Amino acid sequence: MVSSLDGMIAKKDNSVSWFETTDYYEKGVAAQNPEEFLKTIDCYVMGSRTYELAFELSKSYGWAYGDTPTIVLTNRILPTDRQNIEFYAGDLSKLVQERLKPGYKNVWVVGGSMLTKDFIRLNLADEIRVSVLPVILGDGTPFFDQVGLEQALHLKDVTAYKNGMVELCYEIRKDKPGFDE
Fold this sequence. Notes:
Elements: E1 2-4, E2 8-10, H1 34-38, E3 43-47, H2 48-61, E4 70-73, E5 85-88, H3 92-103, E6 107-110, H4 113-121, E7 127-133, E8 141-142, E9 153-160, E10 166-172
Parallel strand pairs: 1-7, 3-4, 3-6, 4-5
Antiparallel strand pairs: 2-8, 7-10, 9-10
């Protein structure tokens, strides 16, 4: 997830202009080639609101997720013009255990505080990656919105980039008290 320093993943108007940064951090590394990273993802799972925004943006910028299988969690009928998009309404644990784990190695959950909360609360996520941009939005959609439980994490990696973005990668610790098994 891309986040502002104050934990927002979207402005109220869903604009993405804040993703562009003119900041410069001398000790940072050059940004990873996005195409190389995206090749490591076997499947995307996204919420319906994120899908609707991505679908709308695709009209101007193209579909950001390529031909990688994408499962959109929704109870609604949504438009699509791509063969690799599947809509799913049902038990999230069943989806993960019966479809995702047997068929994919690296599943990327894309967008949405509600979806993030569900994956964490149901013990379905292995790690959290957040790229923090050098901006405070002050208002918007929070990344973690009322998760409702304390969750221990283990810092796996930190990368500071030349553009001022910092990527944090946390493993979700499942061995700590307070986590519902």
